[in-house]
Every structure is written in structure tokens, then in C-alpha cells.
Amino acid sequence: MYAIIVGGGGVGYYLTKELLSLGHEVTVIERDEKRYQSLSEELGEVAVLGECDATILEEAGARRADVLIAVTGEDETNLVACLIAKRFLQVPRVIARVANPKNRVTFNKLGIDLTVSSTDIICNLIEQEAFTQEIFPLLSLKRGELEIVEIRLPTDSPALGLAIRDLDLPADSVLISVIRGEQIIFPRGDTTFLLNDAVLALTAPKNVEELKKVFYR
What we know:
Elements: E1 2-6, H1 10-21, E2 25-30, H2 33-43, E3 47-49, H3 54-59, E4 67-70, H4 75-88, E5 94-97, H5 104-109, E6 114-116, H6 118-129, E7 135-141, E8 146-152, E9 173-180, E10 183-185, E11 198-203, H7 208-215
Parallel strand pairs: 1-2, 1-4, 2-3, 4-5, 5-6
Antiparallel strand pairs: 7-8, 8-11, 9-10, 9-11
């Protein structure tokens, strides 16, 4: 996969390093010269200096990129970068960091594939804490129609020892993976749950309460 990251601040830096460690090809574009120099010294030619316009993106190889991820601290910059990539350079998937959650609606209406708001994530975590400490919303998808949640199985979970095929999962809910210590398990019908497992699930927000009943008493 080839990813272009717009913004070499904290989020962009760590995202770049993580993707590189996973074996992906990455270019990170940073407009601040001092920050660019720091990135260049550590990451080499992966870092590119410049404003995020069509010329820079094309020079960075956007026409062959699989994804563009705009993670600057400015919503306007992230939106422009994604629109240029999507509409003019045919990047198949664009993802934008959103500082102001109110801007997510605008981003989604303009065709941005995915928006990520740390404000929303933190607020959701606080709200979730009111009724359970074991299920956490991680990511909103398809304009809020779906979300990825993490489920931490309690010691008295009714799902312990059961196979996935025996669970009465609600509609529009799919188990993505089971995290067991350092191991990531891609679930099958015969996968069973053990104490201290964490489960990632894709579900419609309206079904979260039903999903909870599968894993909590």
C-alpha cells in the first residue's frame, strides 16, 4: 500500500513510522521547514517539504496512492488536501482528521471517506463510562451509520467458552478480530473466547446495547 500523509506533526509523525514499520510505502508532506528538517533527518526521503497543493501531491505520486490521510491541526487544510486528492488526482480513499466535530458533517457531504475526531472519541468514551467500563467506541464510519467498538470481556461474560457461531449477534454486527495478549486472531465460526480477551466489532450504533447483552450479564 502507498499512503500519503499530509502533516508531519505528532499524529503524522507516529502514523508515518507505524505504517513504515508495517512495510508500507509512505510519503509525509510538511510545510514547516524546521519540522520538515527534523522529519528528513530521521526518515530521509520519505519527508517532503511544501504546501499541500495539487502540484506537491502530484509530485509525491498521488495518482498511484492508495490512500491520502490529512492530519494537520487545521480542518481547512485537511479538507482541501482531501478534495484535491479525491476529485483531481483520483486517490481512491481519503481520510481527514477533524479538530472541530461540527465540521464532520461538511466533510462527509463533500465525499471524504472517513473523518476522525479525537474530541468525539473522548466524549464517547466519557459517555460510555456512564453505563459500562468494558465497551469503547473507537471509530465512526459511513457518516455515523457504523462504528468500530472494542469489547473487553469481563470475568462473568456469558460468551466465555462459547464459539462465535453460537453467539446471538444482533443484525448489522460483525466481529473483526480477537486480541489475546500479543496475539491478534481473525475470528472464525469455531473461535472461542477466553478470559481477558478483547474483541473488535463493527456494528450500527443502534445495536450497541444488543451487542452488550451478548458479552455482559
